[in-house]
Design goal:
- It holds the Pfam family HTH_3.
- InterPro entries: Cro/C1-type_HTH (IPR001387), Lambda_DNA-bd_dom_sf (IPR010982).
- Keywords: DNA-binding.
- With 117 residues, the chain is an all-alpha fold.
- The protein folds into 2 domains: 78 residues, lambda repressor-like DNA-binding domains (434 Repressor (Amino-terminal Domain)); 39 residues.
- Helix 1 crosses helix 3 and helix 2 crosses helix 3.
- It is elongated and about 50 Å long.
- The two termini are 24 Å apart.
């Protein structure tokens, strides 16, 4: 997999927070397990700091996730399963009418994108 020019630290932070919460862990608990300051976890989750590779590996080991789960938004070649999960999450709180409208918007957008190629 090839990295894009820049990492999306905001998305990385969102995915980190999601994974931490899924493990029922506080920022403080995670920071203790990776031997870091609680404020560091907060900065990472807010996308205001960039983690070192060593820190990312520690976090992934503690949260029992693959590093690609955190970096998938910054990878050029990403698994469609991540996109499927993102779509599912986006639509999870929509009404049937909202889903129908979004589907129509998506169909028109897709057609427009393909016509521009």
């Amino acid at each position: 997999m090839i990295l894009k020019n820049e990492l999306d630290y905001t998305k990385l932070g969102e995915r980190l927070k999601e994974a931490r919460i899924k493990k029922h862990m506080t920022q403080e608990e995670l920071s203790e397990k990776i031997d870091s300051a609680t404020s560091s976890i907060s900065h990472l989750e807010n996308g205001t700091h960039s983690p070192s590779l060593k820190t990312l590996i520690k976090i992934c080991n503690v949260l029992e996730i693959g590093i690609d789960a955190l970096l998938c938004d910054s990878l050029s070649a990403i698994s469609s399963s991540y996109l499927d999960k993102d779509f599912e999450k986006l639509l999870s709180d929509c009404t049937v009418q909202e889903k129908k409208l979004l589907l129509r918007i998506l169909e028109v957008t897709k057609k427009t994108i393909r016509e521009q190629k």
